[in-house]
Design brief:
Layout lengths: L27 H37 L6 H25 L4 E6 L4 E6 L2 E9 L5 E3 L5 E3 L5 E4 L2 E4 L2 E3 L2 H6 L13 E3 L5 E4 L5 E3 L16 E3 L1 H10 L5 E4 L1
Parallel strand pairs: 1-13, 11-12
Antiparallel strand pairs: 1-2, 2-3, 3-12, 4-5, 6-13, 7-10, 8-9, 10-11
């Protein structure tokens, strides 16, 4: 069995995900798309705060307006601010998924399951450690959790970890062939896993004492109860926001 490692799993006849960490740099178009997704995500996350701030500005402007200010000017300013609030509300509503979705806060290692504006569940997680691993053949891996908006590609029960090359290199071992029995480990990812692309998973762990800390190789690691809730609330196609 590997050390306190995360990750992707798969074995013959098992639900699967591939290696967790791409070693290479991304093309320019990917960076552009990622920036767009990040901007949308930031708007989604910041919209309530912006709306609240603008409401405060409206109230403050009304309270502090000098007596000499004409009611017409104040009314125009309020109308402008309220149009802005209404616009933000519309944009926020468009960006908010209708069904259940998951938000992962990698800075504080917390998760939030929401449905529309409603918070359904909150818990702790572990995300990428940002540790860099270098192989003798010049391959490198940075163990970070990708940020942006993703969708659940697959839901797995009793997932099996297919150990990627870096897991063996980390242990000072030569990686075996792809189908070698040493590649597969059972029972280390918990009861369930949700794949959200490029081999990254939301899954369980044997090392619950490390939850709340950035210790994984890129996947999002949850405790048993949190994982059970996330697995049953989210469906294939549900959104996962990571920031």
């Amino acid at each position: 069995m590997c050390s306190d490692l995360d990750m992707s799993s798969s074995a013959p006849d098992q639900a699967t995900a591939t290696d967790a960490l791409p070693p290479a740099s991304k093309p320019h178009w990917f960076a552009t798309a990622a920036a767009g997704i990040a901007a949308g995500l930031l708007l989604l996350l910041a919209a309530p705060a912006l709306e609240s701030s603008i409401e405060k500005v409206v109230e403050s402007a009304r309270a502090t307006a000098p007596p000499s200010t004409t009611s017409g000017v104040r009314t125009a300013q309020e109308r402008q601010l309220r149009r802005r609030v209404a616009e933000l509300r519309r944009r926020f509503k468009r960006l908010t998924p209708a069904g259940h979705y998951l938000i992962v806060d990698t800075a504080n290692n917390r998760i939030f399951v929401k449905s529309g504006d409603h918070l359904v569940h909150e818990g702790i997680c572990s995300t990428g450690s940002y540790v860099m691993l270098r192989a003798g053949d010049k391959r490198t891996w940075v163990f970070k959790t990708p940020r942006g908006m993703f969708r659940v590609h697959a839901k797995l029960e009793a997932p099996v970890w297919r150990k990627p090359d870096w897991a063996f290199i980390e242990e000072g071992r030569e990686p075996p062939p792809p189908t070698h029995p040493d590649r597969f480990e059972f029972g280390v990812l918990g009861e369930y896993a949700l794949a959200f692309g490029d081999g990254y998973l939301v899954h369980g762990t044997l090392y619950k004492r490390l939850l709340g800390m950035p210790v994984t190789h890129g996947c999002v690691r949850l405790g048993d109860e949190d994982l059970r809730i996330v697995y049953h609330k989210l469906q294939e196609g549900s959104r996962i926001f990571v920031y």
